[in-house]
Design brief:
The complex is a heterodimer of chains A (115) and B (115). Chain A starts with a strand and ends with a strand. The radius of gyration of chain A is 14 Å and the shape is globular. Chain A has strands spanning 4-7, 10-14, 19-25, 32-38, 45-51, 56-59, 62-67, 72-77, 86-92, 104-105, 109-114. Chain A has no helices and eleven strands. Chain B is mainly β and 115 residues long. In chain B, the strands form two sheets. In chain B, strands 2, 4, 5, 6, 9, 10 and 11 form a seven-stranded mixed β-sheet that branches. In chain B, a hairpin with a 2-residue loop joins strand 5 (44-51) and strand 6 (54-57). The chains are: A mainly beta (115), B mainly beta (115). The A-B interface holds A 1, 4, 6, 9, 31-32, 34, 36, 41-46, 49, 51, 89, 91, 93, 96-108 and B 4, 6, 30-31, 33, 40-45, 48-51, 56, 59, 90, 92, 94, 96-97, 99-109.
């Protein structure tokens, strides 16, 4: 099955700096790559996703890049703010389970933004 | 507001007892999922259901059971056969798409502690 590795496991940045989280995947058939943000005591929330037919996607301060040849994708957060502090998960999908999503998750990155 | 409700937030049980975790959604989503989250690990899929009265095993289904009698509800039973039941359990839902993944919407989880 698909194996997703995520680095770093923890990341501390000063407020206003950028943060980058990287993930690699093993299955070349993967074609959907979402990123989720999980705040303490809550469930993960989708913040951005990218499909394999594009190399980059932006949404305000958040961007995701995808390199299919190297099988890695990254989350970039610019101008970080204290409310960006959370655990971030990447995921990859090597195709569709019948009628349902088929996501494999990374192990998470705990981002701390220092005011 | 539409969303997913998991209850209770915290649950304590003695070893050897079965316990049922509740998940209700009012998003009119066809597909529902149960994930397990352990410290330092990514989310792992326990069971999923793409439609009422149908459900499929995920990657770690042993020791768990589910039912899907209503579109809105997807309860998870953690049986005494589950060897390491203490974990954070997340329920999610998504729309069904014929040939691709769609964003997952998560509840806020139930933390189960078995002693």
């Amino acid at each position: 099955g698909e194996n997703v590795e995520q680095h770093p496991s923890t990341l501390s940045v000063q407020e206003g700096d950028s943060a980058v989280i990287k993930c690699t995947y093993s299955d070349s058939a993967s074609n959907y790559f979402p990123w989720y943000k999980q705040e303490l005591g809550k469930g993960p929330q989708l913040i951005i996703d990218i499909r394999s037919n594009v190399g980059e996607k932006k949404d305000q301060r958040i961007a995701v890049t995808l390199n299919k040849t190297a099988k890695h994708f990254s989350l970039h957060i610019t101008e970080t703010q204290p409310e960006d502090s959370a655990v971030y998960f990447c995921a990859a999908s090597p195709g569709f389970r019948t009628g349902a999503n088929n996501l494999f998750f990374g192990t998470g990155t705990r981002l701390t933004v220092i005011p | 507001d539409g969303g997913i409700t998991q209850s209770p937030k915290y649950l304590f049980r003695k070893e050897g007892q079965n316990v049922t975790l509740s998940c209700e959604q009012n998003l009119n989503h066809d597909a529902m999922y149960w994930y397990r989250q352990d410290p330092g690990q990514g989310l792992r899929l326990i069971y999923y259901s793409q439609i009422v009265n149908d459900f499929q095993k995920g990657d770690i289904a042993e020791g768990y059971s589910v039912s899907r009698e209503k579109k809105e509800s997807f309860p998870l039973t953690v049986t005494s056969a589950q060897k390491n039941p203490t974990a954070f359990y997340l329920c999610a839902s998504s729309i069904r798409q014929g040939n691709g993944n769609s964003p997952l919407h998560f509840g806020n989880g139930t933390r189960l502690t078995v002693t």
